[in-house]
Design brief:
By secondary structure, the protein is of the alpha/beta class. The protein has a single domain, classed as P-loop containing nucleotide triphosphate hydrolases (Rossmann fold, 3-Layer(aba) Sandwich). It has seven helices and nine strands; from the N terminus they run E-H-E-E-E-H-E-E-H-E-H-E-H-H-E-H. The strands form two sheets. A five-stranded parallel β-sheet has the order 2-7-1-8-9, with helices on both faces. Strand 5 and strand 6 form a beta hairpin. Helix 5 runs antiparallel to helix 6. The protein is globular. The structure holds adenosine-5'-diphosphate and guanosine-5'-monophosphate (5GP). Guanosine-5'-monophosphate binds next to strand 5, strand 6 and strand 7.
Amino acid sequence: MTQANKKGKLIIFSAPSGSGKTTLVHHLLKQPELNLAFSVSAASRSKRPGEENGKDYYFISPEDFKQKIKNNEFIEWEEVYTNNFYGTLKSEVERLRNEGKNIIFDIDVKGGMNIKNQYPNDSLAVFVMPPSVEELINRLKKRQTETPEKIKMRINKAEEELHYAPEFDVIILNDDLEKAKKKAYEVVSDYLKN
Ligand code: ADP
Ligand code: 5GP
């Protein structure tokens, strides 16, 4: 893939669950001058209240997900939690890039590094750092979307994911949300200017 035909760039937001990447990505999507479009992933988990199929995720069954893996339809995919598959569809990325949109990804840490490695010259990889593991737990509890068992799974994974922060292009600390939003806007708009 080349820049010559003015294809959009890739903005990757990765972090342990609860760090605030979805909040920051939604904030950036509200800024029309960034010309961002959200990469809607396929996911095999059930829909949370307020989520919409085709907007937050393409919600599909684990069986359909496995079929798409066999058909080689993903740029990357992960079994992020047991029997919860998530993946970036080739068709989604190609469609948005061909429209000249910059694509923003809200994706787990492994998936983020995977996309960065596939598009090294066209992507900015941002790691959203939580102030502490304790604060991650607080945020996940407050969000009220996960059972205590699932929160435990997410925290176990978070501790491993934090080690990968230095491999990203930029680290944004999400302690004070307003400061983090400002920083996210700055790094993304600077990157897109070049
Ligand atoms: P992620 O997408 O990384 O799982 P979310 O964006 O869903 O994280 O944020 C997790 C929870 O923490 C949400 O309820 C969100 O409103 C809240 N949150 C996000 N940033 C902050 C912050 N800086 N301070 C306090 N709460 C926050
Ligand atoms: P959630 O269930 O909270 O929406 O997402 C769980 C985790 O899966 C988050 O870290 C989220 O960023 C990640 N995720 C979402 N879409 C994808 C994807 O397409 N690929 C990968 N590898 N992870 C994803």
